[in-house]
């Protein structure tokens, strides 16, 4: 029989085999998918839970911002978001049944939100739904969390009791408004909007984030595990500022009262230590929609405006230094008006001051007299006047440690807006712009014998008690002018309070030196006048005690109403109240040092006799100074003064509030803090 071999049949046979194999494999894969999806899903899900890891950022704790004596101005404290795993795999039914009533009573007590019955219903429903992350509450304090950990059910821990919590840091400012804008604050989690010290020193405060490895457990919970990849976070460093909390409190309160009294739009007050330039207090308040005053903008640092009469000191120093005028020279102010081209400059006195000396021009803040001194003295060479101002460094920003400084404007001949009235207008503080802090820095230089020091907000950065970096005092210029001119300038500033526009600030306890300022505020659309209304800026800047300056201070009140807008009436009293409180406090402290053997009550009475002459006698009594005393002696003195005492710590009194010398009433409470030495 003849054998036949057909290639086509062979190909078909082989193809059939291949298709058969593919079909079998497809069926096998499909069956396996069905098994994985519906039969073994729990098994593989459980295995996935056991082997899944993740890497998370370990957020560094932010450093603290401290006052000059170490008290906290801003700090990060731990808060927690608390959840409950109502179906935790380790929770026995008996644990739930026996503990739910006690748990709900505790939640109602420590968390609130619901009554015990309300919590029972909420948790029971969550358990029926199988909620693994039922939210109990956000922003739970460490103290509250400690209580929750002791409650029935929760006391069994995470796996047997279902208690879960995630830590988070919240930035707090324990002193509320005090220096809020200068301390700064964080407005979002990305740290893209930080102002003040918080922003400028963020690289120190922020610390360095780490890396943590977490493992997912059965039930979906994650735990941190030890791993070679883990890198611990480094907490941020602490930043020590120059702020004196007691001075800050005095400045803030004095400014707040005066702004409220005059219904002003905003104001600022700054206290600077003369020798160092340290900013001991800086208050910025602006009226809000609620009618109250809040720290919304750092006007002292950022608002560059026409200063008005406080600029006359710069003009007088320039004129005296250049030999244009001396204090005994006579200037004819006439009827109190003078005209330059189409601009009439007026004095505040209706009838004018007539012929007066240059000293009297300054003491009585004569716009006409100042304009005549500068215009006539520099009319042939106006650049000489401007160059003299430039030599005193007032045309340059201070280069502060915090951001947002306004730019000073001192125009010169040849610039776009220079005109024939520029000299007389600049002489008394118009057509120039400076911030309150820039003005204060200049006056501080006069108090400091001519040495201009840069304002300082931060002194050092610390890691615990270890200093990481220090910020030394910086001298802008060792002499803004000659010593003889400084002496004359100091006598002019004393004369303003003794004989001139600020006589209401004169007192027999200590001397104040300073200058009043009242400036019209220019509106971008309407100039200095809008209809019948003119907005004013009232200011007073100076230093105290005049014969041995310790502190300089500026107070600026913007847009006071009630038709009261002169610097001596609106801003001067704020300056005086701050100075009085500083004097009362420091005087009694000095008295104790000079007379250590004298009975405390005698020394207190001596201090009270001297301080009682000031204008703050709106309450009875003075706060005794108990700093350095033991607890028994401190309580004896305070209670004999009619005060109630709260204390903490042990040892000797390290701090008290209210401060020594403050006015107090019987029955008031004083807090004292004791420390071992």
In the predicted model, the low-confidence regions spanning at least 5 consecutive residues are 597-620
CATH-scheme architecture of the largest domain:
3-Layer(aba) Sandwich
How many runs of DSSP E, i.e. beta strands? 27
Strand content: 15-25%
Would you kindly provide a written description of the structure presented here, covering whatever features stand out?
With 677 residues, the chain is an alpha+beta fold. The chain folds into 3 domains: 56-217 and 226-241, Penicillin-binding protein 2a (Domain 2) (Alpha-Beta Complex), CATH 3.90.1310; 245-581, 3-Layer(aba) Sandwich (Beta-lactamase); 618-675, Trypsin Inhibitor V, Chain A (2-Layer Sandwich), CATH 3.30.10.20. Helix content is 36%, strand content 22%. The strands form 8 sheets. Strands 2, 3, 4, 5, 8, 19 and 20 form a 7-stranded mixed sheet that branches. A hairpin with a 2-residue loop joins strand 19 (458-463) and strand 20 (466-470). Residues 597-620 have low confidence and may be disordered.
Write the layout of secondary structure elements.
Layout: H1 7-39, H2 41-51, E1 53-58, E2 65-66, E3 72-84, H3 93-110, H4 116-129, E4 134-141, H5 142-148, H6 157-161, E5 163-172, H7 180-183, H8 196-200, H9 202-205, E6 210-216, E7 222-225, E8 238-241, H10 245-262, E9 266-273, E10 279-287, E11 293-294, H11 299-302, H12 312-321, E12 330-332, E13 337-340, E14 343-346, E15 355-357, H13 358-363, H14 367-378, H15 382-391, E16 409-410, H16 422-427, E17 432-433, H17 436-447, E18 452-453, E19 458-463, E20 466-470, E21 475-477, H18 483-499, E22 513-520, E23 536-544, E24 551-558, H19 567-570, H20 572-594, H21 600-611, H22 631-640, E25 644-649, E26 652-657, E27 669-675
Parallel strand pairs: 2-8, 25-27
Antiparallel strand pairs: 1-6, 2-3, 3-4, 3-5, 6-7, 8-19, 9-10, 9-24, 10-11, 12-15, 13-14, 16-17, 18-21, 19-20, 22-23, 23-24, 26-27
